[in-house]
Design goal:
By secondary structure, the chain is an all-alpha fold. Helix content is about 60%, strand content about 0%. The protein folds into 3 domains: about 70 residues, lambda repressor-like DNA-binding domains (434 Repressor (Amino-terminal Domain)), CATH 1.10.260; about 70 residues, lambda repressor-like DNA-binding domains (434 Repressor (Amino-terminal Domain)); about 30 residues, no CATH class. The protein has 12 helices and no strands. Keywords: DNA-binding, Transcription, Transcription regulation.
């Protein structure tokens, strides 16, 4: 089941109308929700967290990484290894040319908070870990310090590039990913 199907199924489980979800999401009409649920409209990754909150679930559930609609509520900050999390966050930031400022801006957190994460002074909320996982295609458990694969392998496209490259060979897709990394490296 893909992202759009999960949004629709979760909305229906909650007995919520498209109009009610549109209102919660700040859309002007239910037709936007109808287009999203049918896959006609794509949604940016930044909106996945908002959909999860409106649908009383987690981004991990909506992305299809777990079938548990309340995954985040079962995990506590005590289950996050501060030291390993800080090392892995620094690794991710380095790989993606992120600074505490750029990452803070994209997560809507202060640079000081990101800095506290990177020195192991603080651990983030589970929802922040899920957003980081979505942003960088990471396994949330890996980010939390568990010995699991770093990336989640999925055949489900969840980004614009994935949708645009779904009929390319694996080698061609790798070239697209390398080009995206090159473009990101040119930012200043």
């Amino acid at each position: 089941m893909g992202l759009y199907e999960r949004i629709k199924n979760r909305r229906e489980e909650l007995k919520m109308t498209q109009e009610e979800l549109a209102t919660k999401m700040g859309y002007k009409s239910r037709s936007t929700i109808a287009k999203i649920e049918s896959g006609a409209n794509d949604i940016p990754q930044s909106k996945i967290k908002d959909f999860a909150e409106a649908l009383q679930t987690t981004p991990s559930y909506l992305m299809g990484w777990t079938d548990d609609t309340g995954f985040a509520s079962e995990i506590t900050k005590k289950q996050i290894n501060k030291t390993i999390f800080s090392q892995r966050l620094k690794e991710i930031m380095e790989e993606n040319n992120e600074t505490t400022y750029t990452l803070g801006d994209s997560l809507h957190l202060s640079a000081a908070t990101i800095s506290r994460y990177t020195i192991g002074e603080m651990v983030p909320k589970i929802t922040t870990i899920e957003i980081l996982s979505l942003k960088y295609n990471l396994n949330p458990a890996w980010l939390m310090g568990y010995d699991v694969p770093k990336h989640i392998k999925t055949d489900k496209p969840n980004t614009l590039a994935a949708h645009a490259t779904k009929d390319l060979t694996e080698e061609e897709q790798e070239k697209v990913i390398e080009y995206i990394k090159f473009l990101k490296s040119q930012r200043k």
